[in-house]
Amino acid sequence: GALLVSERIDREELCGPLSPCSLSFEIVVENPLELYSGAVEIQDINDNDPVFPSSQARLEISESLAAGARFPLESAQDPDVGVNSLQTYELSANPHFALDVQTRVDGSKYAELVLEKELDREEQRELHLVLTALDGGSPPRSAQVQIHVDVLDANDNAPVFNQSTYKASVRENAPSGTLVARISAYDLDDGPNGDIIYSFSSHTPAKVRELFALDSATGELRVKGQLDYEETKLYEIYLQAKDKGVVPGVAHCKVLVEVVDVNDNTPEVTVTSVYSPVPEDAAPGTVVALLSVTDLDSHDNGLILVQVSDVNDNAPKTSQDSYDVYVPENNAPGIPILNVSATDPDLGRNAHLSYTLLQGDLTVSHLFSINRDNGTLYLLTSLDHENQVEFNMMVRVQDGGSPPLTTNVSVNVFVTDLNDNAPTVLYPHSNVNATYSNVVAPGTAAGQMVTKVVAVDADAGYNAWISYTLLEATDPSLFLVGLHSGEIVTARQLREDDPPEHTLVILLKDHGEPVLSASATVSISVAEMVKEVLTDLTDVAPANDPRRHITFYLILAVILVSAAFFISMVSVGIFKCYKWRQSKELLNSSRSTQYRTPGPFHHIDAVRGGFMPPNFYHQVYLTTDSRQSDLLCKKPFTSSPLGSRQSTMRNGEPGMYHQIVGTASRLPTPAE
């Protein structure tokens, strides 16, 4: 006898808005047969949201409406009943409107907008509100509608000029249609209430209206008639702006137009005779007539001007007397390196300047070029610091006068060094076969110098600072190399079990950026005497060496050249002694004792058994009485590349060659 629900029950579909909602039924019972009647009441649950007819609503409200005006809104519908039905409305926060919720006779709710604060379209053209409908369920269900409020305009604003007074100037010979000024006004209203028309004010003189025209739409004030500075120098024009409302708003402004004088009047000369006729014996300075000149124009237009013609009396002036320019070597050809700046206070052609590079050194003319018109100095080719460090030239600046005036300015170009040369090994030679030419005796103590690696870097300064490190060695524990000297010394005492032959590879690096390097291979033999080394060398030499005969002829040639050199030196010495004696006898026979005869020049070749590069070449001049003279040394050719100077180093004997020549510590005699 259980009563069950056979399918889902929807109260709103069965009963709609009726409440209460009930379903009637009958039950038949057998044995005994009985008939029962029953009813089931369907209770409502909050299963439906309130619904607005549309998701958006639009209202048009004039800004002229007073506070308190009411605007009904469309109501929402909720099919639920009782507390689950629509209960209230809510309005989003805003400064102008409030919401008044009313109840109908049947208990349903509706809402009205109430204007609490007057609208101003110029402040805000439109408002966006949100209306929310809520039922009484737990939790409550809701629906929203967007309310768009358009604020309609009312002619409540008068036009306003952006400035009360405008100032303008116009030349008196300005043609008709010339723009004088443009006035501008604005109106916050919309539509016809905001459209502006410009016009002359009623108290503007008719003469002004004949000379000027005003565009009613754009506010442009233009010349209409012929202006005359001599007649009127300043015009005061009054203008107005009106909107197109039913009751138009009006604004006023003033335009001050200054007429600029032009030289449109010729001078008038009046001659007044004072003394006529003039007697022939009239003294110089006698007044004959008075001249008066008048010009209706003003200021400079009314003066008698005397023009002074220019004379080329000013030479060009440079901003500085000399220029020092620093250019890195290996530069790109054709680059500008300097702009020689000069001015000339003369006028016209007398002030037209031209720049010329004076033809002095032919090297300079091939390397540099200057722009004749603007004085830009160009470098035509790439420079090499190791070839030449400094260039000196002269730039001539000439004006276009007749005769022209010139100014010379010196330019010194210094070539700065880049690390573009790797160290070059002078000793040991890299172009011969490695031999054990360096000998060290067995049992040599630690710290003894065996040999020295000599190298030179054609760069300058820090780029030429060479450091030496031991890269490879037969026995790394036996020898050390000086970091900056290149000296190879024994690191420990030699022992009997040490190998008899050693090969060292020395790495040479400069300190430039980027670092460049080279290597040198040094061979060292451990032997009691040189004979042992030579025996070893003979043993390792090829049996059939085709060059063994060449060695004999080379030795013979050296002997012959040495003999010829010795004979030549003896001959030169005899000749010098003869000349010295002759000059001494001539000096003794002279009455003057102010000077002494110098002795013969002495040439002293000093080759240090050391290891200096061949470009360290000095010439020193001394006398026979050199103890009383100063030692003068020429600057070493440190910047010259290794191959650009004469070689002063003998083959196989690296070192530093000095030539010391005697020089007189007195002035030469007339005979000399």
From TrEMBL:
| One Pfam family hit | Cadherin_2
Ranges of residues in domain Cadherin: 53-161, 162-269, 319-425, 432-544
**Keyword Transferase: yes or no?**
no
Instruction: Report the SUPFAM superfamilies cross-referenced here.
Output: Cadherin-like
Query: Which GO MF terms are attached to this record?
Result: calcium ion binding
Instruction: Cite a GO CC annotation.
Output: plasma membrane
Q: What GO biological process terms does the UniProt entry carry, in alphabetical order? A: homophilic cell adhesion via plasma membrane adhesion molecules
Which parts of the chain span the membrane according to its record? 552-575
Where the protein is mainly located, per its record? membrane
Q: Which UniProt keywords apply?
A: Calcium, Cell adhesion, Cell membrane, Glycoprotein, Membrane, Repeat, Signal, Transmembrane, Transmembrane helix
Topology relative to the lipid bilayer, per the entry, is:
Single-pass type I membrane protein
**KW Transmembrane (keyword) present:** yes
Report the locations given in the UniProt record.
Cell membrane
The protein, known as: PCDGK protein
